[in-house]
Amino acid sequence: MNVLKEIDFFTVIRERHAVRKYDPNVKISRQELSEMLSEAVLAPSTANVQPWRFLVISDRELKEKLLPVAFNQEQTATSAAMIVVLADLEAYKEVDKVYSQAVEAGYMTAEIKSTLVANLGKYYENLSPDDIKSSFLIDTSLAAMQFMLVAKAHGYDTVPMGGYDAQKLKEAFAIPDRYTDVMLIAVGKALEPAHQTVRLPVEDVAFWNGFGE
Quick one: signal sequence residues (predicted)? Predict the structure, then answer.
């Protein structure tokens, strides 16, 4: 079992890199993966709807099943686990559960909860399916990024993957239509250092108070 050590936040964000070569002998326990996911879902979401869902694939045979779906990318088979990150397009229908927990925790009254739940129901019912999907993809991506940072803090490496056949993924793992795939994330221990990358300077990507020269 990996021993979690305190790592400075800035060390985590600077040392997190996309790793594609994993030690196939490293395993991560279900308990620790659950802990990592519980920390990842502390990410924010619109109206606290929390549309993210995770299909965790750690079984060796199932990772082999996922391998051709992910275009035979090596990390699919050699990582400790593959996380299929999904957005639940019907998550807003379950918002009563979220707000009921907030009432139990003393964060709001039952009256306020009832009003918020009713208003959110009307709001999402008036949105198009594409608008709901766009919103939930953003929210779920926040949780996915947080998972990668959490994994690094636990001493593991990750790589987000967009290269896979979405339709074959749904078919292979019988993913219901209410869920839309967002990305795959491989997690494990690097077998060799990640390929180093560079970033554009802030001067090239940030605009201050407008787009003037």
Answer: none
